[in-house]
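Case study: Zinc ribbon domain-containing protein.
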Amino acid sequence: MVQTQPSPPVSPFVEPWQPTPRAKTIIAVVTAVLVVLCAATYVIQRIWITPESTVEGYFGALADRDVTKAASYIKDSSTSTADIVASDKYIPPTKLKINSIDGDDEKTAKVSFFLGDQQVNAEIPLHRKKELTLGLFRGWGIDGGQPSIQISSSAPVEIQVNGKPLPPESQETRNLQVFPGRYVVSVADNPLVESAPVTIDAGSGESEATLEPQIKTGAQAAVDAQIKEYLKGCVTKNVDTCPFTSSITKPVWRIDTYPTVELHLDESGSVQLETAEDGKATVTGTGYGGYPVDDSMSFDISGSVVVEQGKLKYQPEG
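Here is what the predicted structure looks like once written out:
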């Protein structure tokens, strides 16, 4: 008779899973990867994507005169001053020092930097961005706070900054929002007026640039020459539109001295022509009753000066 061993009792509990050596290796590798990723995320968020790195990147873009990159750090910023910043007349900030950064999701960075040999202290407002970088990280942006230049002049003339025209949005108000740096404000080149350029260090807040346009010395000489040509033509015309005329028969005019004329720029931007010293002319001919005439008279000059096709033009009255 054959005897069999009884089967062991069946446990009501699930036997714990016993990983194979291969499974243990896979678990260890996955765990290590997750730890590395978490550590890398922490390092990137805490070391690379920081308020400090945002401020440093912003000033680095200015050092490269890269307006597009600089504007990318600032909320609602414009690149309309790209040509102005790209000019070799633009002096970017140097020797940036971040003194402190305070706040939570909205911070304020207190910084100092140099514009040329002038040290500037400024505050830069920062905010934590809502959008994620690489789908994981919340970076920092600069919340406005750009400096500006308010430009004024004693007469309405065309303005340039660093040799470039004002952007369309600034031409009426003449208030130019800029990036930190040194700028040169001047009157646009034209044959009539000029002004000493004004250098502005725009570090923070609003700076003012006031221009004092004056008539160019060369403009005065050019107008004097045109007036003389005009008066020489009047010698042979004897018409009412000229500054001297006579009713005698067959008058012959001779200019003894030409008038001295001064040009003035008024508040409207128009050039006013003023006679500082009258000219003198002599007329000879036959008067009433056949008597010979030999008279002298003083005369002044009037009219305006305009710019046509880049050149000065004297326009007599009448």
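For the exam, be able to explain this: DSSP finds five helices and 20 strands in the chain.
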